[in-house]
Amino acid sequence: MAWVTLNRNEQICDPDAAPVLSEAVRAKIRSFFDRYDTKRAVLLPAFHIVQNALGYVSFPAMVEIADLLEIHPSEVLDTISFYTHFWTHPKGEKVITACRSISCEVMGGAVVLEELKNRLGIGEHETTPDGKYSLVTEECLACCDYGPCLLINEKLHQRVKPEDVGSILADENNDTLSLERSDLFDAPPDKKTSNSGAEEETVVVGAGLSSTSDVQEMKESD
């Protein structure tokens, strides 16, 4: 095995480049500060917010996140590299995640994955030339009773057979959820009061940015 050596002293971001995070994205990240004891604790919500807005978390975005949270950029890079959910380079409009757990494997998951590769013409962690699909695998999608499983963006497809792959890819709504989306990553209402103590208006910071959640339990625990 050969390890890839990175020069941590090499500048990878242009310090004179224009900011990549809009003020709306920055405001949405700041809105989480009061929910935690430290700004550093907002790191994972910040990843979700930025990826939801930009599609991925680039190196310049990491630097700007570090600046907002008052931590070193290396801490941001070290954290994001631990999670496969977050992308540090552009991904397809839809990300297909194939489960490679033992349960899905014994039910034919490897054959389904090969059918996906053949139909899409790409390998793992690659994107189709039209930018529509990216393909990745995960150790487990936590749906072992219904393997083989595929996750397309946030929609789970259960008991997938190789002959089902074509119709799933042809379905324009193959990533559409039927449940209400979580508002976990929306800013809490900022209620303003008049001098008499009466509530005047409610302003939501970052309005206009769509919310995101890939786990229903996150909605229930918010």
Write up what this structure looks like.
- The protein is an alpha+beta fold and 222 residues long.
- The chain has helices spanning 23-30, 43-54, 59-69, 73-80, 102-106, 109-120, 165-170, 216-221; strands spanning 94-99, 126-127, 133-138, 150-152, 155-157, 190-193, 199-203.
- Strand 6 and strand 7 form a beta hairpin.
- The longest helix is centred in the first third of the chain and has 12 residues, at 43-54.
- The protein is globular.
Structural class: alpha+beta
As for the CATH topology of the domain at 94-167, it is Glutaredoxin
Give the class-level CATH name of the domain at 94-167: Alpha Beta
* Amino- and carboxy-terminal Cα gap: 43 Å
